[in-house]
Amino acid sequence: MAVHILEEQLELSNDMLPVQGTVDIEIPIDELWEVFTHANWWPIWNQCFFRVSNKSLVLSRQLTWFFHPIRWWYLYKMPARAKIVEVEEQERVTWQVTVLPGFYAQHTYHMEDLGNGITRFGSWEKAMGRGFKLMKWFWIPHFVFVRDRSLQGASFLEAVYQREGRFNEHVLKEGRRSGL
User: Fold this and answer.
1) Among candidates 73, 139, 72, which has minimal Cα distance to 104?
2) d(Cα 151, Cα 121) in Å, to the nearest integer?
3) Do the Cβ atoms of 21 and 119 come closer than 8 Å?
4) For residue 107, is pLDDT > 80?
5) pLDDT of 155 above 70
6) Confidence class of residue 2 from pLDDT cuts 50, 70 and 90?
7) Is 96 within 8 Å of 113 (Cβ atoms)?
């Protein structure tokens, strides 16, 4: 089935309400976008990710990563693969998951410049399909986990930026080690 048809079906789907949320952080949007586009740095600041293979976000490329478990005592690292379908600089990145039979999901990280060095960062996710509905008991808590850790991660980035005034991989790792 063509992806654009799936997008239309997802919009109309009642399989779930979107799992979404935002946080306002004191980081200029250009600085946030720059650190965000280093996908392989996501595990440093966003604790839902164990590992991300991509160094950057490129339209039409596959995004490959592993998730941490939703509870620390669960003994798994969940692999994931999606196609990046939208990259709007300083605005949004969207990917679609279609690799599981009967499962279609779309996830968007988005940003909005609120002025005065404040940016609204958000996470939005929705899924549908027979495979999704069979495992909805798992997927909804997983999507909530991703949203919550992503928003917490954005707040971590804010703390690092307030302390350091810049981002790079070393600064992020130091911030994580220091307990920011």
Assistant:
1) 139
2) 7
3) no
4) yes
5) yes
6) low
7) no
Q: Which numeric CATH code is attached to 3-177?
A: 3.30.530.20
Residues for the chain: how many in total?
180
Closest CA relative to residue 18, chosen from 122, 162, 152: 122
Per-residue confidence (pLDDT) for residue 1, from 0 to 100: 47
Q: What is the mean pLDDT of residues 21-50?
A: 97
- What is the domain partition of the chain in residue ranges? 3-177
Specify which residues 23 forms β-bridges with: 121
The edge-to-edge listing of strands for the beta sheet with 78-88 is 19-25, 118-128, 104-115, 92-97, 78-88, 62-67, 49-52
Are 25 and 118 in contact, with CB atoms under 8 Å apart? yes
pLDDT value of residue 5: 72
